Amino acid sequence: MPKVFITGHQGMVGSAVVRAIKKNYSDWSILSADRKKLDLLDQNGVEKFLSQERPDFLINAAAKVGGIYANSTYPAEFIHQNLILTGNLIHSAWKNGVSRFLNLGSSCIYPCRAEQPIKEEYLLTGSLEKTNEAYALAKIAGLEMCRHYRKQYGVLFHSAMPTNLYGPGDNYHSENSHVLPALIRRFHEAKLNDLDEVAIWGTGSPRRELMHVDDLASGLLFLLENESPPDWVNLGTGVDHSIQEIANLVKEVVGYEGAISNDLSKPDGMPLKRLDVSLAEKLGWKAKIRLEEGLLRTYEEFCDSLANNTARL
Predict the structure, then answer these.
(1) In the CATH hierarchy, which fold is given to the domain comprising 3-307?
(2) How many C-beta atoms surround the C-beta of residue 73 within 10 A?
């Protein structure tokens, strides 16, 4: 019975992985530790924890994350914390005999003007989007660290590159959230307060690929069972929508009847971002949850979390 250590198990991705393991791998033992028990920024603490617990697999779903505002405002925290925690985990996993290490990258770390759809080999072939450059550099370092440890030491350390995610446990903070949870909260509050319009950032023309976090969890576990996975694999839907189209879908799901306006004083961010998912499909995995279905489920879960005071606001 393998023991699986999941970092960030209380976050959106980590909790989805926990749910998927409990549902589909009843013979696996799940190991987790909250921040009070283990500070991932403390190298000695991470070394001691892995030495004592000796997990077979490690899925690194821990990261400091946020939207355009958070990345632009706190770049030092984003590069420092993500560099340190990822480096601590990879090095300590190697020292303590962890047989599989699955690291999470992000589609936002590809070059800003990458050809679309984005293939795995496009990483490090161009300049990064300035609004999230610090985060991207730290995440790229994690991917490269896994690759080099695998090459030098023969360990099976590899990474997944998920697209933009949404679903249960998302962050709905008014300033630090990603685009979809920000829109869900904005339209929900506009409906409650009978507002005439909801403003979205920028022109609404940038296009985003969105995947439900439960699809990501299934993809991560699929990769974890692959005997010889690539160094990194894109995990996404292969379908994108404009921010304006996404806003209209959220408006419909929420039941808001006002207008949508565009705040042109706010940045658009990366103009176009859609992953090439042909490698994942060739390996045998494909996302299943359509955006319309995922949005309905996510809004219901958001309303439930508001009712029981568990929403991340």
Answers:
(1) Rossmann fold (3.40.50)
(2) 12
Find the mean pLDDT for residues 4-27: 96
Task: Find the angle CA(36)-CA(2)-CA(24) to the nearest 5 degrees.
Answer: 90
Neighbouring-strand partners of residue 200: 262
Cis amide prior to 117 (ω within 30 degrees): yes
Q: How far apart are CA 277 and CA 209, in angstroms?
A: 11
Per-residue pLDDT tens digits for 244-282: 999 999 999 999 999 999 999 988 877 788 999 999 999
What would the mean pLDDT of 76-84 be, rounded to a whole number? Answer: 96
3-state secondary structure of 188: helix
The whole-angstrom distance between residue 105's C-alpha and the CA centroid of its chain comes to 8
Q: In whole angstroms, what is the distance from residue 218 CA to residue 294 CA? A: 15
List the domain boundaries for the chain: 3-307
Of 25, 69, 110, 135, the active-site residue reads 135
Angle at CA of residue 64, ends 286 and 289, nearest 5°: 20
286, pLDDT greater than 80: yes
Residue type, 62: A
Which residue matches tokens 């995440």?
A: 139
135 catalytic residue (yes or no):
yes
- With a cut of 80, say whether residue 174 has pLDDT above it: no
| Contact between residue 159 and residue 146 where contact means Cβ atoms under 8 Å apart | yes
Can you list the positions of beta strands (E) in the chain? Answer: 3-7, 29-31, 57-60, 100-104, 156-162, 164-166, 197-201, 207-208, 210-212, 232-235, 241-242, 259-263, 272-273
